[in-house]
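dude i think i finally got it to work??
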Amino acid sequence: MKSPVRRHFWVFAFALTAVAAAPVAAQPARPKVPDPVEVTLPTKDGVQLRATYYASSAGQQAVPVVMLHDFNETRAVFDPLARRLQNPPVSENPAAPRVASRAVLTVDLRGHGGSKIAQSTSGAAQELESNRFQQQDFRAMVDLDMEAVRAFLVRENDAGKLNLNALGIVGSGMGANVAVIWAAKDWSAPPLPVRKQGQDVKALVLLSPHWNFNGLLLRDALKFPPIQRQLSVLIAYGAEDKAIAKDCQNMINIFSKYHPEPAADRVEQLKDFFVYAPETKLQGTKLLTSDAFGIGPKIVSFLETRLGSQPFPYSIRKHP
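look at this
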């Protein structure tokens, strides 16, 4: 039997397109989105990352969203949110703006889910166990796993199936730390004279991030000016967990300096930093999938206003 939490979770998505008045005529149907497909992303050290790709019907203007799970979770926790972003409901109000289909990639980071096999250069297979990971294994999620993710997104970008320049990352717990540190790496890539390289991450959704998760320390990334100033950020956590609340407050103090609250008549256009801290001990994807706090619709709205409604230009990357 499905739990009440899971059964009612997706009620939130309909609020995004609800209208008060009776519709005059329905909008034309959006092109059918493809079924989600499993893909394998090989890393440079031989790990075969398993991922699910929810392709968009919006072509080269599709906003890509990568979702990264917490420690000892898998990409499956994000399936409902990924499906809703890939295929948002169409409003029956013809005057309502249409929300475009997103291109979503959910990833099992190394040692998790289907990503537990590493192939050596000799062809021998090694099983990865997350409970035995050392700090270098977690760092490899940033340096190697995310580069494999980016290589996949570059191929899709150059095939005209998404706009990599409008990249958003949703991370939970450990995945949130990976997202922040990799975003700093993305923004530190030196510009190339012939093609765009880096500075693709434009928005971060951080669910219960840690200041330091097994060596994934956020200190240096949060000192980096592009991370402080250039990205739109949403942080959500349960305020009753004092340790998580302290970590998140440290991050909030940093971001708040560079993202002042806009004037009341410009909030919808300019607000780019959001914090949600309901009084609960729930954290990460458990907070997301609870229908008691509305974190899901807040993420959907955030990605629409900060990515979908922004004019990020598309460009070919000429992947290797």
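The chain is about 35% helix and 15% strand.
im so relieved honestly
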